[in-house]
């Protein structure tokens, strides 16, 4: 099968022929139909991902496809089933899973998958005599992927896989930050800083939660227009954040979401909430930088929270998102700026990097 390989940090991805083995115990071979290109893929290309330590690696982690084969013991999906490939496949048995903190599963298979291997340290991908690692156990910039059964969330066959793919990362991260992490209440005010592929989903999550004031902030005007289409009630071209927000909601908002991962911006989002307000860091931060916030603001009963992927429970949240999409309450088409074939993966990466698009989606014939 063909796959886009990262062979050298900072270099373009290379399309190559990759051998894929049959799925083993508890594994599923998925023919990938579509894969979004996400900021985390860019981080890996730049050599800034702590989980991409061995090359070559197949990137891509926001995907959906059709089950082609299943390994021994797999019972929840069968060949021909359509699935969204969740970013994590919880074990269901570790302490975190037992506490409902499924996104923090520390089971052996899950921890190995994060590093791109199976529990016994092997992978199902190779080229020549080189072992190829799939990014976080997925590797969806490829025609096929071998993933764990727990990552496969079955969906209706008549739903468009190129749109459902987006639920796996960008959508569940944004909407999950609102519904699972902050638990935004109806009638409240929300600030969203950073309106790219994930930020737009924070905006539409806030709409779903019943927030009545949704302020979208970004430094790019076109992204603010997009945020309005997703339900933002106000937009600010961010240059003086707490002040600009205060002019719309006196005293600050009930909730703030930073989707930039920039500590200085997060501090401004935090300062834009009123006493008792909650701020969630949704963006993944660059390493080696500290966050500085005045303790006096924290003393005002403000809360600061982190999240990984919207604290998603795949088997609960992905069907929920698919259902919201199918009932017309979740906009997925509006997130797609372009659809490209695998051969154009480097163009898609460049477009995401330039911030010109919400989501580039690689589609497979
Ligand atoms: Zn992602
Ligand atoms: Zn677990």
TrEMBL record:
What UniProt keywords are attached to this protein's entry? Metal-binding, NAD, Oxidoreductase, Zinc
Superkingdom of the source?
Answer: Bacteria
Q: Which residues form the Enoyl reductase (ER) domain?
A: 10-362
Keyword DNA damage listed = no
Name the Pfam families for this protein. ADH_N, ADH_zinc_N
Output the SMART domains linked to this UniProt entry: PKS_ER (SM00829)
In terms of InterPro entries, this protein maps to: ADH-like_C, ADH-like_N, ADH_Zn_CS, ER, GroES-like_sf, NAD(P)-bd_dom_sf
Cofactor dependence: Zn(2+)
PANTHER family to which the protein is assigned, alphabetical: ALCOHOL DEHYDROGENASE (PTHR43880), ALCOHOL DEHYDROGENASE CLASS-3 (PTHR43880:SF12)
Q: Which family does it belong to?
A: Belongs to the zinc-containing alcohol dehydrogenase family.
Q: What is this protein called?
A: Alcohol dehydrogenase catalytic domain-containing protein
Task: Give the species this sequence originates from.
Answer: Actinomadura fibrosa
Lineage of the organism:
Bacteria, Bacillati, Actinomycetota, Actinomycetes, Streptosporangiales
